[in-house]
């Protein structure tokens, strides 16, 4: 990913859109933070940003003061799924009525990351590897247009060069009947990472790009 930064907050406007998914981290102190995902409700870029404050977060933070808390925000740009925007700011305050909302100060500067077409996305989703004789369950750890990595706990009988099928129900736009073969098996603590190459580079549609980006975003890898 290529990264750029800007001190011109008016430029932030083009990356913000009501309803966009955000990852928020409250920085209460050294080794004391709380992370959650939410959405942007509204904003006046030069004055404030309004975020939805999930009930779960409110319950866990009931004994915390949510004013003047250092806050890190990252978001996927709905207008262009080729960008991630990030900035540091602080909270004004939270309100409970008529809705649970969080008000943030406008940041002094922000950064954006352009995601390359052939980016390898780090994710964490249940998946399976199917051979002629067996099905092995694991966790898809990364995905690109040319292949993926699936972590399998413990021992397995998979072999490099084997033709396999992969399934990952949470990526609904993954092409069906995708030809694959195992190119690498790496031993890791508690299991093995199975490197899988697609027989043909997949065409990552806008729908699939959006879906994978949001999974990677939820995994905290972008």
UniProtKB/TrEMBL annotation:
Key words, A-Z: Bacterial flagellum, c-di-GMP, Cell projection, Cilium, Flagellum, Nucleotide-binding
GO MF entries: cyclic-di-GMP binding
Keyword Metal-binding: no
Pfam families found in the cross-reference section: PilZ, PilZNR
Ranges where the PilZ domain occurs: 116-209
Signal peptide span: none
Annotated ranges, domain Type III secretion system flagellar brake protein YcgR PilZN: 19-107
SUPFAM superfamilies in alphabetical order: PilZ domain-like
Domain of life: Bacteria
Name of this protein: Flagellar protein YcgR
